[in-house]
From TrEMBL:
<keyword id="KW-0804">Transcription</keyword>
<dbReference type="InterPro" id="IPR001845">
    <property type="entry name" value="HTH_ArsR_DNA-bd_dom"/>
</dbReference>
<dbReference type="InterPro" id="IPR051011">
    <property type="entry name" value="Metal_resp_trans_reg"/>
</dbReference>
<dbReference type="InterPro" id="IPR036390">
    <property type="entry name" value="WH_DNA-bd_sf"/>
</dbReference>
<keyword id="KW-0238">DNA-binding</keyword>
<dbReference type="InterPro" id="IPR036388">
    <property type="entry name" value="WH-like_DNA-bd_sf"/>
</dbReference>
<keyword id="KW-0805">Transcription regulation</keyword>
<protein>
    <submittedName>
        <fullName>Metalloregulator ArsR/SmtB family transcription factor</fullName>
    </submittedName>
</protein>
<feature type="domain" description="HTH arsR-type">
    <location>
        <begin position="1"/>
        <end position="95"/>
    </location>
</feature>
<dbReference type="Pfam" id="PF12840">
    <property type="entry name" value="HTH_20"/>
</dbReference>
<dbReference type="InterPro" id="IPR011991">
    <property type="entry name" value="ArsR-like_HTH"/>
</dbReference>
Amino acid sequence: MQVPLYQAKAEFFRMLGHPARIRVLELLQNGPVPVRELLNEIDIEPSNLSQQLAVLRRSGIVVSVRDGSTVSYALAGGDVADLLRAARRILTEMLAGQSELLAELRDTDTEADTAVQAGPPRR
């Protein structure tokens, strides 16, 4: 029995659902990066990074390239970089909406404070 598309998408996003994996993908957007540089940029243990890279490699999102004793990782295709850019745009819009709401709440609080300080309306 074939997995429904919505379930496959959910599995895909679940696979992306680890901060270290997202950080690896961000670092790989500009081209291959050696594992030692990934370790310098991501504050996790080497064994944990290895596990996260294995998850990304099994999913087919990244590929490993060996050059002598140096192992580098690269994005398997440009679509992942596009997805990360789209996520950044979505988050920016969400946060902009939240900051607008926060500003509106602060304005409302300031107006309410001013009204309380002025006291009850005079007749």
